[in-house]
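Sequence, structure tokens reproduced for absentees:
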Amino acid sequence: MDRRYLARGHANMRQALLKEVPAAFFAAALHESPGSVVVVQRDATEGETDRFATALGRPVLDLSSVNEDIEDLLALSGMLDRYVGVSNTMTHLRTARQRSSDVIIPRPAEYRWMNAGEESPWFPGSKIYRQMPDASWPPAFDDLAVALKD
């Protein structure tokens, strides 16, 4: 097989696995929620966590380095009372521990999140908040903000 094809395929796979949501909407949804905010961002850009904390209006605990060790990440997954994030390893680990998550899903959704609905059969008990078909985010983050006040 051609190395260029392999390299291009790897880049396409990485792009398919990259999931992003607007940090400002995420921070706004978390703004009035009680408790501490722990950041576990993989491959954060320089200053990204600080900008998120500024948008949130309060300090965050940056534990992003925990992503380097899956056992540490698994331990952290069991220590968090609630987890809100974009589909990622932490969501998988929490499900393995029979703990739910609040999951923000950008479009197009990966197969495991299906194209519609508030739950996935692969992540029982986890609630899905979806980007709208027109690519807008406010309804998903508004619903998340309401859920986080509970």
Notes: The chain has one domain: 21-149. Helices lie at 3-17, 23-30, 48-56, 70-79, 89-96, 138-149. Residues 38 and 54 are 14 Å apart (CA to CA). The beta strands are 38-39, 61-62, 84-86, 102-105, 127-130.
